[in-house]
């Protein structure tokens, strides 16, 4: 049956379909502002460069949940709550130990976050007085899920979370089983800041759509993880690293220009390039580029940075397309020793702050999200009994 029959919505009068909802403004938000022409990104009033220079991930969480920076006491209190909420319920650890070691880390993370709702004292109840506590509980536990699965699949013991230190420090500690150096912690913290929030991207839209049915925050984050996982969205960071590793098979003299042109000739999309909103260099990619360059010198992976730049220049000259956040984050994570298939999980560890901030914003001014589809199938067909089809 046509979508329009009961409401008088006449598809003949609406011949234009906006594929991908390009340019459609469906919400107002105080969470972030993107100027796609200038390449500017603001989280709740603060330029991304200002936050990169000054903030910690925990301060950014507070900012996205409260639309203002915390004072010293509020920041200490949030840090304490995040630490207290790190421990994973035993059934989640049991699931991680029992699941297939070859499972996709993002799939394991999605399932574990969904399970978390059952062990939350609030059972994920949709109640605005409970939302910030739920956001803290989910944000605090995601790093432990990622680290635990990575250790289990490598036949290593799960490392219990620390009762101190930042989210970035504790994550690297749980992943590697040893305390990270200052540089690795700072790099991880900066990556968490840069990935925290980005307007109405596909995963945040998914989160708000689930929130708008008055479902619950765990369902919304689970759905958002599913959306982020795809290679056209957050999954692109893993795809970038796999592409560079494929190129590295050519040896140190690999030709990244020819490699890129070949992909373009085959009409392949190059991961880490292009963006629905930015028509210029993504400001996060610029910050990550500097980090990638510095780390490539420190770790002796200079060829990865050189190939990245060759790809970037080729994309610019051939297609006039700039890199997005996923392009240089890949080599940054690689330089600090993280396995490529965990990159999108790390993105999740950060973006959960933005998702949950949007969840609270949606709930405070809610309306069901329900667009239309143009029916293009047949109508009023005669019924044919099964034996005659
Ligand atoms: C965190 C994030 O989600 S950032 C984005 C991460 N995703 C990626 O890096 C995957 C690669 N990029 C892409 O697939 C796209 O640029 C997207 C999905 C990010 C944006 O898609 P859209 O806004 O729908 O742009 P669309 O796909 O229509 O591209 C417009 C044109 O640029 C081309 N183009 C866009 N990105 C790329 C790319 N990465 N490589 C090659 N060509 C590209 C398209 O082929 C298209 O060309 P055409 O008009 O000649 O057909
Ligand atoms: O905004 C988008 O569409 C994708 C993106 O860069 C992000 O989610 O960080």
TrEMBL record:
Metabolic or biological pathway, per its Swiss-Prot or TrEMBL entry: Carbohydrate metabolism; tricarboxylic acid cycle; isocitrate from oxaloacetate: step 1/2
Keyword list, A-Z: Transferase, Tricarboxylic acid cycle
Entry superkingdom: Bacteria
Family: Belongs to the citrate synthase family.
InterPro entries noted in UniProt: 2-MeCitrate/Citrate_synth_II, Citrate_synth-like_lrg_a-sub, Citrate_synth-like_sm_a-sub, Citrate_synthase, Citrate_synthase_AS, Citrate_synthase_bac-typ, Citrate_synthase_sf
Catalyzed reactions: oxaloacetate + acetyl-CoA + H2O = citrate + CoA + H(+)
The protein, known as: Citrate synthase
Matching Gene3D superfamilies: Citrate Synthase, domain 1 (1.10.580.10), Cytochrome P450-Terp, domain 2 (1.10.230.10)
């Amino acid at each position: 049956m046509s979508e329009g029959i009961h409401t008088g919505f006449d598809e003949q009068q609406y011949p234009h379909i906006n594929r991908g909802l390009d340019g459609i403004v469906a919400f107002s938000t105080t969470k972030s502002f993107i100027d796609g022409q200038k390449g500017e990104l603001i989280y709740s009033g603060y330029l991304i460069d200002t936050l990169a220079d000054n903030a910690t991930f925990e301060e950014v969480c507070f900012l996205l949940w409260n639309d203002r920076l915390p004072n010293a006491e509020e920041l200490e209190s949030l840090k304490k709550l995040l630490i207290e909420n790190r421990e994973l319920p035993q059934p989640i650890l049991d699931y991680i130990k029992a699941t297939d070691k070859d499972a996709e880390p993002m799939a394991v993370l999605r399932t574990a976050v969904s399970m978390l709702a059952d062990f939350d004292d609030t059972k994920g109840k949709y109640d605005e007085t409970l939302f910030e506590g739920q956001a803290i509980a989910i944000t605090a536990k995601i790093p432990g899920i990622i680290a635990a699965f990575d250790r289990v699949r490598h036949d290593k013991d799960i490392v219990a979370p620390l009762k101190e230190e930042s989210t970035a420090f504790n994550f690297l500690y749980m992943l590697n089983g040893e305390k990270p150096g200052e540089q690795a912690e700072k790099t991880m913290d900066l990556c968490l800041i840069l990935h925290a929030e980005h307007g109405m991207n596909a995963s945040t839209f998914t989160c708000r759509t689930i929130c708008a049915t008055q479902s619950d925050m765990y369902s919304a984050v689970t759905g958002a993880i599913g959306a982020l996982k795809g290679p056209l969205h957050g999954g692109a960071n893993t795809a970038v690293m796999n592409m560079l590793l494929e190129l590295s098979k050519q040896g140190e003299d690999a030709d990244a220009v020819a490699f890129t042109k070949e992909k373009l000739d085959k009409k392949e999309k190059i991961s880490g390039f292009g963006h629905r909103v930015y028509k210029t260099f993504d400001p996060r990619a610029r910050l990550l580029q500097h980090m990638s360059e510095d780390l490539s010198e420190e770790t002796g992976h200079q060829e990865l940075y050189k190939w990245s730049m060759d790809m970037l220049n080729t994309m610019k000259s051939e297609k006039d397309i700039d890199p997005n956040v996923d392009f240089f984050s890949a080599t940054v994570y690689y330089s600090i020793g993280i396995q490529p298939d965990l990159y999108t999980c790390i993105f999740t560890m950060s973006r959960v702050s933005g998702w949950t901030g949007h969840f609270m914003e949606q709930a405070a001014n809610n309306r069901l999200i329900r667009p239309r589809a143009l029916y293009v199938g047949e109508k009023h067909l005669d019924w044919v009994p099964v034996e005659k089809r």
